Amino acid sequence: IKLWKSLNDVQGLHVPRHDNLEEYVFSNFERMYTAFEQDREMIEPDRFHEVRYEDLVADPVQRLHEIYEHLDLGHFAVALPHLEAYLESIRGYTPNQHRLDPAIRTKIERRWGGYLRRYGYTADVAYG
User: How much is the pTM?
Assistant: First the structure.
């Protein structure tokens, strides 16, 4: 019950206060990517494959085929009909567009600029 209360207080089933939300998002992202970058060389190359979101959205069938081959996940042909059915179900979907306050853009560039540059993002792509 003590664990449940702790998870409840932190993860959900409560009214969010949004206290320090901005800092929480910035610091969690930084902590996550710092840990990932420190540990990524411990991951066997055949067990890890990076795909840019934009590339996945532009050609999901080809990108997933590459993922299946790189990670040796089995016959892509088995998954293909399910993927095609899913893609048909979301045909016409348009992602939300967001406009960020210039002050937030500046903070993102200052705090996450290294990540943006490492993965080839520009302000136009990163911020919409």
Answer: 0.73
